[in-house]
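#onboarding

Welcome to the new folks! Below is a worked example of what a typical request in this channel looks like: someone posts a single protein sequence, and someone else replies with the predicted structure as tokens. Don't worry about understanding the tokens yet, we'll cover that in week two.

Example request:
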Amino acid sequence: MINKSALQQLARGEFTKGLLHMALLFKGKEKEGLFKLARQRRKECFPREEAEVRSVIEISNICRRKCNFCNINTHAKTSKRYLLGYKELMTIAEHIYNKNRKVLLFQSGENNSQKYIDFISKCVSNIKHKFSNLTIILCLGNLSYKQYRQLREAGADRYILKFETSNSALYRQIKPDGSLEKRVKCIKVLNGLGFDVGTGNIIGLPNQTITDIVNDLLFIRNFKLTMASTSVFIPGEESNYRNEPPGDLNMALNYMALMRIMYPWLLIPSTSSLEKAKRGGQYSGLMAGANAITVHDGTPAELKKHFPIYSTARFIPNEKYIKEIVTKAQLDF
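Example response:
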């Protein structure tokens, strides 16, 4: 029997830890009710019912971090390291723009060398000069205040920096060369510089508890955000967590729905990790209230295998697939 009382409390904006804990475990009719409420909230804030479609260019897999959950950390051996050249990147950006795409995501491993940041700044500046109505999102990791400012002044519009977990002790376990305090500082610097900021967590990390995940939902309140996301933990074959079990897709979808209900104004992507977790996962993400999706049409085909962010056999959504699931979810794009 559906728990109408819990759904009514969520609809009234009652977000106690106990209620969130309960809702993260919803299945069956309760989950359907949760998703329906999430879609209602999405429609209230986004009445045009559109999904933002982003093209991603995975500029480089060079990374200085030692994250235990990641396939492209500094210890990973199988993927050759690469960095797109300036002319190639500019050609890709023009091709994407000519396809009438208006949002471009630059993603890379974390590389804070000034030479690299100068390169990215040059690319951003010239792309924005040529295509002024193209929104550029960066996902480059922790950088210095000066480097963030440089990228913002070059014309970057948004920045994604996931906090990954709000449990500082767990953060040190999954990212032994980092700290949650530093991550939070970077997010707040990005806010101060005028970026539209996105952050988010990972569901199913080793040693993560449901209390941690509840706290992640509430942690989002600490920031001024335009975007927020969740991804399912996938035990990457080249990561230190390769023998750990994968995250719970059902909980990740419930988390997405709760984000939409709690923070209805946010752009929430349905990520490819959902599809990797289970066929149809990205469509389910849209039904749980997501309203953004990424097309992997920017990275050259021969390099995609060298950016195995979730898995060496990751799911790479193409334009045809994205159109199918967005249309099925009764959204425009």
